[in-house]
Structure formats: C-alpha cells, structure tokens
Write a structure and sequence with these properties.
signal, SurE-like_Pase/nucleotidase, hydrolase, nine-stranded mixed sheet, 9 strands
Length: 303
C-alpha cells in the first residue's frame, strides 16, 4: 500500500510493541486486496504481532458461512492483484504472509488456519482470528448473511479459536495499492484498540463458542467522528431481546441495547456485541459477563 499521511501517523502510534505478541490470522469477505484489511494488517504487524492474511481472491460479500474448496481461477484477482491462471491459492510474491484463496470467506479462514499459517509458523496455529474491517456495517439481520461474521464464527465454533469480526460504517472501497483512506486508517486503529484490550485481558481471550461482532460508525473528515479518539465503545446485543432471558447487568439495566439501535441513535459509537458462534445470535448473560469484565475499562453507557 502506498504511503500517506494517514498511514504514517497511524503506524507511528502503533509502533510501540504490545505486552503480548500473538499469532493472528486475518480474513475478510471484501477480498485480500481491499484497503481496509491491508490497513489493519499494517497496524497489527507494527504492534509486533505475527500476522498471516488469508482472504478471498475477490469480493465475496454476503456469502455467510458457505465453504467450498478453492478451484483454479482463470481471471486476475480483484484490482488485478494476481495474474490470470494463478491457481486456486496464491500469495504476494514478496510477502508470503499475504494470501488469497479462490473461494468464500469461511474457506479462506479454514485454509488459513489449517494450511497456510502453519506453513509459516512451523506448524503452529493462530492464537486469535480477526476478520475485516468490512466495508459497510453488519448489524442485526445482516449478521446471518455476512461473510465477515461467517468467517469469525467458523474460527470460534469449528476451530475453537477466539475471533472478532469488525465492520465499518463507510461503504466505499479502496484498492490495496492506493493511499490509505481516512476511514481505513481509523477503522484499523479502533480495531486494534479492541483487539489489544482483549489480548491484554489474558487467556482465555474469549469464552468458548463466542465471537465479538464489532461495528464502527461512519468516519467523516472534518466531522464529529473523524478519528479514533472521538468514539465511544458500547456493549450491545445482536438481536432484539423481547423474549430472551435477561442480559448481563450493565449501566443500570439487565437488557443491553441492540447494535442497530446504537448505530441509529448514538453518534460516533462503536457497538460490541457478544455473539454465539454456533448460531450468530446473542450469547447468555454468563458469557456476556466474562467479556464485560475484559472490556469494562473502555466501555461507556448510553447517556
């Protein structure tokens, strides 16, 4: 990715190594050459993590949990990021940690966990899986169809690896070989903030069969939500809880707001939902409480 003022500022802020460096697998559903995923990759690597990117060769948004072994491709990858007739799986010629898989988001995550990353890590598998940041939000009903969420749920449910799905409010796309956009840089910083808070909380990073569904608000240059320090982090639930058991008690109530409600009514708020990787709905209060204790120092209440 070409240098830019946003990239330089962000990487400088992330250059200090974190206390705990992890093996992190990164995927998405927008494709391996999308700007958001590359900006987040830069920040995680600058923080000292060993990161392997394993994403679809093309934009595979809305594919949910589809999983089919990759087949050789005939056309170039998205943004001409790989040549025609490149096979079923490939990598950057100078960066073997940047990989594409000619299939769905879940498949790219599966291959990353089982095949690609272990080759680079002497047989080891990831400590954590992060997906996104997606171009556009994944809220409520959209969660069931999101490839970004589907990939995170595969990691947490089938592979038993803690996972976080990140999505951003801006829908614009940005090729990997253009200057980093403002929103990509801010999404990356916010995603790293949450990732490091989870890591610093210690093992197990998340409860069994749990993923986090994180939605970041739209970032607008010159507006009230233009940098990472502008946002508030709100603990939410994915689906409405009218007939659900009570949530964890937080902010004076035992019913968390939905992520959709927060994004419709609370300016510059990042919603963090504790999701059940088995069915992509909200988990029980007991597992919510575990995550609440891990994230509490960064969370706010809706005033």
């Amino acid at each position: 990715m070409k240098s830019s003022a946003w990239t330089a500022t962000l990487l400088a802020a992330a250059a200090l190594p974190v206390a705990n460096s992890l093996r992190i697998l990164q995927s998405n559903d927008d494709g391996w050459a999308e700007g958001n995923v590359r900006a987040f990759n830069d920040v995680l690597r600058a923080a000292g993590h060993a990161v392997v990117l394993s994403c679809p060769a093309d934009n595979e948004s809305g594919r949910g949990s589809l999983d089919t072994d990759p087949k050789p491709r005939k056309d170039p990858c998205m943004y001409n990021s790989c040549p025609a007739n490149s096979g079923a799986i490939g990598s950057n010629t100078t960066r073997p940690d940047l990989n594409w898989v000619n299939s769905y988001p879940v498949t790219s995550t599966r291959y990353g966990i089982d095949t690609i990353a272990p080759k680079l890590w002497k047989g080891a598998k990831p400590d954590l899986v992060v997906t996104g940041p997606n171009t556009g939000p994944n809220l409520w009903a959209a969660v069931q169809f999101s490839g970004t969420v589907g990939a995170a749920c595969y990691a947490a449910h089938q592979a038993s690896i803690p996972a976080i799905a990140f999505s951003g409010g801006n829908r614009a796309t940005h090729p990997w070989n253009t200057p980093t956009s403002l929103e990509s840089a801010v999404f990356a910083e916010i995603s790293a903030n949450i990732t490091h808070k989870v890591i610093d909380s210690g093992k197990p990073y998340l409860p069994k069969d749990v993923f986090l569904n994180v939605n970041i608000p739209e970032i607008v240059a010159g507006g009230g939500c233009s940098k990472a320090s502008d946002v508030r982090y709100i603990l939410t639930r994915i689906n409405p809880g009218v007939i659900s058991p009570p949530d964890v008690k937080w902010c004076g109530t035992d019913r968390l707001p939905t992520e959709f409600h927060v994004h419709q009514n609370t300016p510059c708020a990042v919603s963090i939902s504790v999701g059940d990787a088995a069915d992509k709905t909200t988990v029980d209060a007991e597992r919510q409480k575990v995550v609440l204790e891990k994230l509490k120092p960064m969370l706010s209440c809706i005033s």
